[in-house]
UniProtKB/TrEMBL annotation, chain A:
UniProt name for this protein: FAD-binding protein
One function term, GO molecular function aspect: catalytic activity
Keyword GTP-binding recorded: no
Keywords: FAD, Flavoprotein
Annotated SUPFAM superfamilies: FAD-binding/transporter-associated domain-like (SSF56176), FAD-linked oxidases, C-terminal domain (SSF55103)
Organism whose genome encodes this protein: Pseudoroseicyclus tamaricis
UniProt-listed PROSITE patterns: FAD_PCMH (PS51387)
Superkingdom, natural source: Bacteria
Domain FAD-binding PCMH-type: 1-172
Automatic annotation (TrEMBL), chain B:
Residue span of region Disordered: 469-490
Keywords: FAD, Flavoprotein, Oxidoreductase
Cofactor field: FAD
Classification via InterPro entries: FAD-bd_oxidored_4_C (IPR004113), FAD-bd_PCMH (IPR016166), FAD-bd_PCMH-like_sf (IPR036318), FAD-bd_PCMH_sub2 (IPR016169), FAD-linked_Oxase-like_C (IPR016164), FAD-linked_OxidoTrans_Type4 (IPR051914), Oxid_FAD_bind_N (IPR006094), Vanillyl_alc_oxidase_C-sub2 (IPR016171)
Protein name as catalogued: FAD-binding protein
Gene3D superfamilies, per the entry: 3.30.465.10, 3.30.70.2740, Vanillyl-alcohol Oxidase, Chain A, domain 4 (1.10.45.10)
A molecular function GO annotation: oxidoreductase activity
Domain FAD-binding PCMH-type per the UniProt entry, residue ranges: 47-225
A Pfam family that the UniProt record links to this protein: FAD_binding_4
Amino acid sequence: MREIGSEEELAELLAGRNAPLSVGGGFTRGMTGEGERLSAAGLTGIRLYEPGALTLVAGAGTPLAEVEAALAAEGQRLAFEPMDHRGLLGTSGQPTIGGVVAGNVSGPRRVVAGAARDFCLGVRFVDGRGHVVKNGGRVMKNVTGYDLVKLMAGSRGRLGVITEVSLKVLPVPETEVTLAGEGGVPVLAAALGSPFEVTGAAVSGGRTLIRLEGLAESVAYRQGALAARLGGDWEVLEGEASAALWRGVRDVAPFHGKEGAVWRVAVRPGRAPELLEALGEEAVVDWGGGLVWLLVGGDGRAEEVRAAVERLGGHATLVRRGGVPAGVPALQPEPAGVARLTGGLTRAFDPRGIFAGAG
Amino acid sequence: MQMPVPDAAVLAKTAQVVARLEAALPGAVISDPVELRAYECDALTAYRCPPLAAVLPRTTAEVAAAMRICSEEGVPVVPRGAGTSLAGGSLPTADSVILGLARMTRVLEVDYADRVIRLETGRTNLSVTGAVEEAGFFYAPDPSSQLACAIAGNIAMNSGGAHCLKYGVTTNNLLGLTMVTMEGEVVEIGGPWMDAPGLDLLGVICGSEGQLGVVTEAWLRILPKPEGARPVLIGFDSSETAGACVSAIIRAGLLPVAIEFMDRPCIEATEAFSGAGYPMCEALLIVEVEGSPAEIDAQLARIGAIARSFDPVELREAADADEAARIWMGRKSAFGAMGQMGDYICLDGTIPVSELPMVLRRIGELAAARGLKVANVFHAGDGNMHPLIIFDANAPGQLEEAEALGAEILTLCVEAGGCLTGEHGVGVEKRDLMAVQYGEADLEAQMAVKDVFDPHWLLNPAKVFPLGASERRRQGGQPPVAVGDSPRDI
């Protein structure tokens, strides 16, 4: 594994490179492709953190744990709740903040608060030509030129190597509670459609889970009002018991230690029950139905999963290959018009195909 | 300001282009020179130029037909929503066709369970909320022009509003779109689900100022309306203290939906205009929170406690809806009040909240040096400033002087760690300042994106990038020239 220590060194390397590279930070998320491994973990360090302005700038190789610790010390956090892939993929190593952005890695709060891409204010990256590019900045509203920040967030290293990210952070609410009960996706939709500011809506381990966060007096009020509106019996979990539940949903803990392919399906929330019924596989449902994790044994049923998603609307990513044959792409194939644009962009930023194996 | 020389070859075949458009889109083409005056500018009224023709399609298929013709004929296309851009985003050139979306206003689908709406993008921002509010929902981004501005323009400029501290801007509320490329191809991106499977094309199209494609339909996220909202008004005897109070509120973990800031010149002007009953002080904050009455009480109690620790000259909570409306009245009439004081340029730079006191002080110094008056009214929670430079357009040289001050203030915003524009867009207005914020490689990377979507640079080509930087790519490639004797005559 090659390691780079600076953006300049990376730019020089990429400008003269003709063979594929597999670039990563902690290599924990299964996003990296073929070619010699190149670690960007050396591009480390929190470069600016202004709690009063809710912004943090860090080298892409900065461990996620270091970022989260710095934020926690000021009572703040990454509100998009990035998942930890290690339990699901059996990987080890330190997840980095660059990997979070490159994968647009979000967790349960994404349904309301937004994804990693929504909290990413700026990036620096080196493209496949060795050009150092910056875009966005460290302010919350910025429409100066094209939003390449969004293009880089979730690009899985296909366009270039992210070297620095600038993030919007948010305060940690003083209280959280979870209502645990029954009802599935329709009840989650009713909760998310209420004015009570639900920040988590999942079905895991057979239980319907709804999270509320905020000031203590506000949470107490909303908890009562929401339970009354939804009807039924709700067990109330507080503090660490609630937090542990959502870590489990975030990291898809019910699948840990089990064999099989893991599909991550983004689907129109109301269609999630149809998807579950059509496939009949073990599932964890998040985002009020908008995200369905499927654990599929045998050959992974790639054709059926993708056909169902095609029919219902959405996209399926193969997060853990399991028994799915090697030729099946990890990402949902794009319609021709979109694929033409995506192909054009990858050729523009990476004309020599250095990152072609990524994704 | 400079614009490219109109392409003589295009001008020479005006009749042919108009005939082809009329054949393909009967009743949707405007070519009469008098009627075309309606399309000669947007809300950046200092610059005007009638287009070669204007087309008002009724369907995505008609948009595609018009784009194909313009593409084949090599005619530049300038997309237009409602024409409310303050940055000249829809300013035509004489050799361009305006493609207006004003006739495409239908709601195509509403799904409250999935909290989404699909609509045609000519629809106005406020009427999106209008379509869903009976069911208790709303569309969050709320630019000041929301009564008039179209979703198409909101997407093109990634518009914000007063409430984005909590709800985000357009890009955070856009789930999918139907776009017509310059070549006339219809592309669907995203939909009523979350995130992209591959590259986030939706994210780069939003905010691309109509340079990548014409967005004709959109999937937007709608949200359940909060139970209620209530503002509090806090006056301070210095801008520094007001800025520190904003930071303290944010640091305390409170997340108001809006924190608006007005300085003394702005307070005086709005007070004279609206009689909202504002205290005369150096800086005024309007902080709004949402929730049930009890939740609002709890939040306002905490905000009040923080504010009192900064020794405010006034702290006024709205006891009822009437008082709430009075608190907002002055802020909402701020731009109208400025209009009474004279002509104005509204800037839109964003700065890190921590730099607020320094930036306000420097703006005052820069304005004094040029003998101009600047009033500040802005979204303090997110650092999006709106300095208003007051000038007299009839006084020779004042517009140029005001524009020069504007450039200095925006440069200051960038130097303070911020950016040129937080929600209005670059358009033609800030095009030539892009090099202040971005280096050559940064601009090249952005222009490379346009190369992919619009290889011949026919779509809104003279915007966003300094003309020199985009010259090689723009069709014809003539060097830019200064046009007309005055900026009003291009």
